[in-house]
Amino acid sequence: DWLTRYGYLPPPDPSTGQLQAWTAVTQAVRAMQKFAGLKETGVVDGDTLNLMRTPRCSLPDEGGDGIVPPLHTENHHHRQKRRSPSTWSRRSINWRFQTNLLLHLYFFYERFFKISRIFFIFSHISNLHTFTRLRSYPTSTALSREMIRSLVFYALKVWAEPTKLEFHEVASPEGADLQVDFLHGSHGDGFPFDGVGGAVGHAFFPSDPDRAGGVHLDSEEDWSFRQPASEGTDLFTVLVHEFGHALGLSHSSSRHSVMRPYYQGPVGDPLRFTLGSQDREQITKLYDLTRNVRLKQLKCVLCVSHSNEADRCTTSFDAVARIRGDMFFFKDLNMWRVSSGGLVSEKAASIRRMWGGLPPNLSPLQAVFERRSDHTIVFITGSQFWFFNDLALQEGYPQPLHVLGVRGGEQGLVWDTEKGVVWGDKNKRNSERLESETWRELLSEGVNGITTDSDGKRELYEHVFTGSIYIFKDHLYWKFSHPGSAPDAGYPRALATDWLDCPRPSSALPEGLSFGPPTGRQEFHGMETKQERDQEMEDKKRFRKDRGKMAKKHFERERDSLEHWLCSK
C-alpha cells in the first residue's frame, strides 16, 4: 500500500484483485531506496522500514529522478497532469485568513448524506498578480491563529526572496490563487490524511486545472514551532515544502533540499532560514527573471485603471505610508505602490482593491500607517479610523475618533516645532493639542501623515529609512542624514521623478522648507530612492554570480523589522 500510495507501484486491478508481482515489488523497493538515498537492496530492511514510517508529504515521488508516476488511482487524471508543473504568471501573491464555513458544511454532508467529494474550484488567473489566503485552521494546536499567520508569511517569504514573487493577504476569497486549508481524513482530492504522523500535507501544481495552488495540511497533526523534532511537527518546515509544490516544484531526492518528501525536523528559524543552493537553482529556473517578456502581459489586477485617477507625476498626495516594506502613495480612492524593485505599475490601483473593508465613498485620507507593535494597518479620515490585519478589516471597525479621545472634523496630525507630531486643528495655527494618553500611544506606534504648522492645507509625510529621515511635501521630498540637521545637499528633489518613475520637471525646485526640527519620528529599515536603486542595479551587474543579492538584502531588512513581534509570540 505504501509503495502504491507514493507512486512506486500501480495499484492492483480492482476487478480481478490481482496481486503485485514479486519482481515488481522488488524493483519498486529499489526505486524507493534509490530516491531516498538508502542502500539499494530491494528488501524492506530496517532502514527502509523506518523511513516508510517517517512523516512525509502525501504526494508521490515522481518526476526529475526517473520515478514512474502512478498509472491507476481514483485521482489518476489529476496526478498525470501534475507531471507538468508549469508556473504562476503572477508576480504578486496575496493571502488572507477566513473561518472555513464551507469546510464545516462539507464534513456535515459527507457524514450524514455520504457525499463522497466536493471540489473547491480555484480560478487560474493569467496576469501579473496572484492571490493567496488561509481558509481554515487546525482544530487542536498550541499555536495561535496569529502565530500560524506569521508562519505562513515567513514560509512564503522563503520563496519570494529568489523569485521576486510578492505575497499578500487578500480580503475576499474570489481572487485567491493559493488556498491553505487544515483538513482531516478523506477530503475529496484523492490524498486522504491519516492522523498524527504519516501524511502531513500536500499541495497542487499551478498546472492542475481544478485545484491549482491548493495547499492542504493535516489538522490532526501535533503542529509545533521552535520545538524539538520529538515534540510535534514543525509547521514552518511543512509550509515551506508545500508552498514549493504550489509554486511548481516536485520532490527532490537530495537530503539537503526542502523538497525532500520526508519530514526531517525543523529547518531552522523563520527569521534566518534561506533556501539551499539546489532549491534556489530549481525555483529560479521556473521563475527566471529573464523570462518576463514571455509572461502574459495582461492588466494587473491591483493596477486597475480608473478614469478619474490623478496624474501621479503632478498630483500632491493625501497620505504616504510604508506598509510591509513597500511604499504606498494615496490620492483620493487610488494609490501607487513602490516595492524594492521600483514602481509596481504606472496605473493607479483602487485602495479598496486591497483594503476592501474601506467604504466606497471614502473621503481623502488624513493618515495611514503600520502600527509598530503588532503591524496593524491603520487608516484615518474624517471622524473615523479603521484597523486592518493585513488586508482584512478587524471586527468592530470603523470606530469614531472620539473613542481615542480626539476630535474629528478639521482635526488632523499637525507638525509642532517642540512636540513633533500632535493632533490639532489643521486650520488654526498653535491650536494643536494631545487629547489623551491613548492618542499619544498611537502616535508613538508610528504615525507618518502630518501637516506643517505654516500651511494647514498641505500634507507633510515623514519616514526614516536606513538611518536617514525623508520628508515628503507636495511634489518634493527632503533627506536628512542626521536628526535636527539641515537637509542633505541636492535636496529637495522631485518626488515623482525619484519614487514614481516620472520625467524630471523642467521648473526649478525651491531651495528649502520652513519647519521645526524633525522629532517624534517613525523608524523603518530599507527603502531606497530611485537614485539609490540605480546604484544597486550597477552593483548587481558587477556581481552576476549572485542574482538574488538585492532581493535577499530587502528581505532581511523587512524580516528584521518584524523580528521583535514574532519573537514575542
TrEMBL record:
Ca(2+) 3 binds at D194, G195, D218, E221. Its cofactor is Zn(2+); Ca(2+). It comes from the Eukaryota. The lineage of its organism: Eukaryota, Metazoa, Chordata, Craniata, Vertebrata. PANTHER family: MATRIX METALLOPEPTIDASE 17B, MATRIX METALLOPROTEINASE. Residues 75-84, 542-552 have a biased composition (Basic residues). This is Matrix metalloproteinase-17-like. The modification Phosphotyrosine is found at Y397.
